[in-house]
Amino acid sequence: TSTLNTNSRATSSPLPCRSSGPTCCQRRCRRRRRCRCSSRTTKKSIGSSTLTKAGTGGSAAAPAEEALPDFGTVLPTADVTAGKTVATKCEQCHDISKGGPNKIGPELWNVIGRPRASEPGFSYSSAMNEDHAPWTYASLFKYLKSPQGVVPGTKMSFAGLSSANDRINLLAYLRTEADSPAPIPAPAPVPAKPSK
Question: pTM value?
């Protein structure tokens, strides 16, 4: 009777599998490299074993950065009422009314065009305090998708709004919650058609 040495590599010739089911690879088919009753491949090496699914190849590529909308085109036609509905998610931690208090997050009246981390009386994270550039449509559009992704270390624990349309509508609503609404930029020029 042969003895399997756990510190050596697995035998190169596959043995027929005598069982089936999800526990086959882990319990009954340890001596062969490829299990004939499942699509998983077991790679044994000294001191460790790795299971990989057949057909997978390495780590996934990083997602491409989202293109910014043409705010001069989308904001004039945005649904402000829908944006107010989206804003109820913000109001769990922020007050949006004029003169409203700071809550878990700073109040958001006049937020578009306001310098970042500048609301009096609110204690911002050091990460947010590193930049005091004004909140623009573009910077808020990116931030609202993934607060932690844009400002790692921010106190804002909100996961973000994945829908670009929701963010556009929210920006259109937040624009109205101000003493003087921030101007909407001019639409991007239409590229000229190539001459024949």
Answer: 0.66
